[in-house]
Every structure is written in structure tokens, then in C-alpha cells.
Predict the 3D structure of the following.
Amino acid sequence: MDENPFADPSHVNPFMDPSVTQVSAQSTTVGAGLEDPFVAQTTEPATVPVAPVISQPPAEPAAPSAGGFNAGGYNSGAPPNYGGNYASFSSQPPKQYGNEETMQKQKLVEDEFRKREEDLERRERQLRDEQKRLEDARVYGDRVPNFPPLPHFFPCDPCVYHNIDFDIPPEHQLSVRRVFYHWQFTVFCYLINFIVCFGMICKLGTKAGSAFGLSLLYAGLFIPLSFLTWYRMLYNAVRQDSSLRYMLFFFFYGLQIVVSLFGALGIPGGGFAGWITAFKTMEENKGLGVMGILVSLAWCADCLIAVYLI
């Protein structure tokens, strides 16, 4: 093989040393002594040709690069400088993906949604507080009296607070309202009974004096008592769910049925223009007798309504 024409003639090739060439010659035989003991070997160990060594002059040491590595790839000891013209990774802002305007719109939507959620929670708390306040007012609160509904020029003021829609639970409002209508009809019976007895004393004179006096007493006494003893008793019993008030209501309501029976019967001089009094009055005054029959029918209807409701 020709010698390197660019080599220095005065330089000795280190690879042509006898010790190096001897080792290279011995390494040409590969695989000797590495036969598999479990496989029978019938062929000779293969030899691998080794390329001849080309004599080259040693490379001159290169100047260290800016990154701290020389031309041969070895570190020269200087710290590496990766991209000296750029900022380090720690100082760079995070990379933004997507359009910035889209991200701002999304943030605005999230803020609006959060505000609406907070507003709904605030309204829910207000409704709970209002419901609790109404419940407490229904049971314990001080209510302004509004019953009976008297005109402003009247010298007396209302006595009690009465509001079925507010005080009574919805499932019991119909029953309480029916009893209230029955109480109003009972008031009508007492008033019309007093009017007929007043007409009797005007037409018949002193013979109907006891009936007129008792009818006045019944109207002035039994109307407020009927409201307080059985209607108001039921009203408070349903509002407060009181067993004792329920018992008192049934007791006084039974007494009202007895009073209605006496009113329909109309014992002479008993203060009721019932059947007996009406027929006796018809002999002297047919107009008063007819009115007495109407009162008797009213007391009968009052008694039947009470029995139906109880």
C-alpha cells in the first residue's frame, strides 16, 4: 500500500510499532475456544478479516469552542453555554396556546357564571330566611288584630287576628273555612231570631216580652261565645296542632247543636221563634208566623250543618 503523501516524513507512525502489529495479527482469529459444548462442531472456527491499519498523522488539538467542547468532543473544563443570546428557561413565560381574545372571552363567561351562581345562592338564603320568619310569625309572632272587620268610625277595634290562608296549613284550610262559614250562618240565625222576636213584641205587646228579652240576650252573648268557644278553638287547634283544643272544640260544638235544636223547636217564652212559637204567632199575625217558620227552618239547617261538619 502506498504511503500517505501528506504525512510528515520525519514523523514516525505509532501504529507501525512492532508490539501493535503483533497484537493486531493475533486478534485475527475470532471464536477460538468459544464452541458450544452442547452442539457438535464440525467446521473450523470462522475468521474475520481485519482491515489494514492506515497510517495517519495525529490530529492537532483544536481550540476549545464556545460551548466548552473541543473538536474531538471532549469537555475542555469550561462551562457550556447553550444559546447565550437567548434567555434561560426559568425566565421565559409559559407558552400560550390558542387565541388570547378567546381566552379572555372564556374568562368573562366563567366570571359571569360564578356571579349568577352566587346570586342564586343569596336568593335561596333569603327565601329560607323569609320562610322561617313567616313560620315563626305564624306560631309565635305578634299579629295585629283584624277581626271582626269593623269600620274606622266604630268606637271599638278588632279583637283577634284572623287569617286562614296564613295561619292554617293548606291541607286543613278547607275544613276550617267550612266551620267559619257555619259560624257566620249561626250568627245569621241569632240575628234573624232577634228580629222576629222584636216584631212579636211590637205586634203582640207584653205577651212576647220574655221572648224578646231572651233573644236579645242570646244574640249578644252566644254570638261572641260561639266564636271563641268552638270556631276559634278549632282555628287555634289546627294552627298549633293541640289535642286539648280539639277536645274542647268537639265539646262546645256539641253544645251548639243542642242550642240549634232548641232554636228550631221554639218553646214559647224561651227566646226562640221556632216551630211552636211560629204556629202560635200565626193565629194572631200571619206575617210574623211566616217569619217564625223561616227562623225555624234556619235553625234546622244550622243543626244539620253542624252534624255534617262534626
